[in-house]
Amino acid sequence: MTGGSIWMIGDVQGCCAPLEQLLSHPDISSEPDAHFWFAGDLINRGPQSLASLRRIIAMGDRAISVLGNHDLHLLAAAAGVRKPSKSDTIDEILDAPDAEELIDWLRFRPLAHFEHDHLLVHAGVLAKWDVAKTLALAGEVETMLRGPNWRKALQKMYGNEPTHWKDGHTGGKRLRVIINALTRMRLCTPRGHMEFNTKVAPGAWPAGLVPWFDVKGRQTRDVTIVFGHWSTLGLLVRPDVICLDTGCVWGGELTAMRLQDRKLVQIKCSQFRDPLVEK
Question: d(Cα 32, Cα 105) in Å, to the nearest integer?
């Protein structure tokens, strides 16, 4: 991308009305050459998953979106690997007359995007990976998703093991570590091993666990990692990390931040889901 501002946007999760308000905000709509980075989870749980997906697709080359865990869940449902749950709002996509085209568009989204010293992912980056390694490993999954055997490959996506990276990982183990790190990770052990069972507010996690971005020796501290996925963490802005998931679907806000100067635009959202009910 060249020219114009870049607005980085947190998890939409099927909340199309707030997305429209955000894109119509004077600070954003006054920039006709602006581009948009979406931190994944475009769909699911919110009331307008199909409309949200169509809206972002219609933005064409002005929008870059990395895949989130909910986006991958939709692909798995389309592949017959997983059935939608009661809390999912993806049936309208699966039942759409152009469902195949929508799914194909999603299959061709990246898992990581790097530009202007900013690395965009949905959840996080393992401490051992530098930018080049992250992009290369993301590319392995992207190649799989874009290939003819993507449905079969997604059968190996689910599971919490292995918890850490080894260059010797192959097959399903390799696939799961890459996907889990980039789309599901929040907390790690001090050694950088992923932990998926703890779901508490920031600062309340057990001793021996730290946010993935505070693991010592992280190889991406020289760039800014932009991510979503962690609504209980909320807005976090540091030189090395920016979290933009401010819980739109839970009654929080949909957040956009301009890359060039960190200008913030937020839209208050109706509460579509109750986190206390869905724990």
Answer: 24
